[in-house]
Design brief:
This protein is of the alpha/beta class. It has 14 helices and nine strands. Pfam families: BTB, Ras.
Amino acid sequence: MWYSEIKHFCPRTPIVLVGCQLDLRYADLEAVNRARRPLAKPIRPTDILPPERGHEVAKELGVPYYETSVVAQFGVKDVFDNAIRAALISRRHLQFWKSHLKKMQRPLLQAPFLPPKPPPPVIHIPEPSTSGGQGPAALFCTPLCADVVFQLQGGHSVFAHRVYLATSCSKFYDLFTLAGSASQAGEPCGVARRAAKEPAARTKSLEMEKGLLGEGAQAPLRTSQSDDPLRLVQGEGQQFPGAGGQELSGWGRGFVSMQLELVQDPVTQREKQMTVVSMDCLVQPGPFQAVLEYLYTGHLDQGRADLMQVAIIAELLEVFDLRMMVANVLNKESFMNQEITKAFHVRRANRIKECLGKGVFAGMGGAWGLF
């Protein structure tokens, strides 16, 4: 070290201690050594001193300490500026008559070095497989995390997800939101609807022939093709008991009742609370599952032999897009169904954003994660 020789031969010479190649503390030494081979000696991690060691040496010598890095463009100007300050201060006693030296500052402290941020990690997201994946079709066939079960005539049970149905069909959206609003404090349905203070949108009245529905036809239902929930006409509301279930025969054709029950999950084989919806005898298992599959995937199997029954169930559940697609197939105008399918997916995406914004079905985080 040259400190003893400097103090012996040049006792009045100012000294500044400088640590170089600061960037090596944060560099990839393996890459640096590969670039230096074979001319230079490889750098080992023990060759790089921490900043504390430099400050300790500077404190022992009584000199200022600075760190520099040409690669990072750090500290080079600080070294020259403070070296000039130290040189001018050391000449005060020789040129004391120069007034500008009286205001000269001593070498300043160096600001800490902010190491560069590491590059963000590269995350590779595998593409979802088109066959056998966890898409809506696979979810419908294997009802993982199902929270609603439809009881059909003949003991048939169809498991589904409220989120998929509510965001694809206004009828189911109204049904599942009706369950939450009408069960609060045992209020009548008409009172709960009036308290919502939202403008009722009634743009179409669905009247089906009695021969199609049989003798079980109930009071007329006013429906809306807009995104607003259904509202019953004042005076038509009825008392929906919270614990014993809700009677739906007067609310919509095809529905009998809805209640919460402990049902065995078809996947985990464990009992959990689900919404049990009892359907009318007019709703047949095969066509009903075809309607639900459309609500999940937006796809219609045009080769089905029971397309007319599918259209009837779609009319009952107010899935007007599906009814129109069946009519196009029967009229040999299937090419028009592509636009209907596109509009279906766009409308469902908008409904999903609306539900997320309003917090509807917020308690079903697992079901939201399935989208």
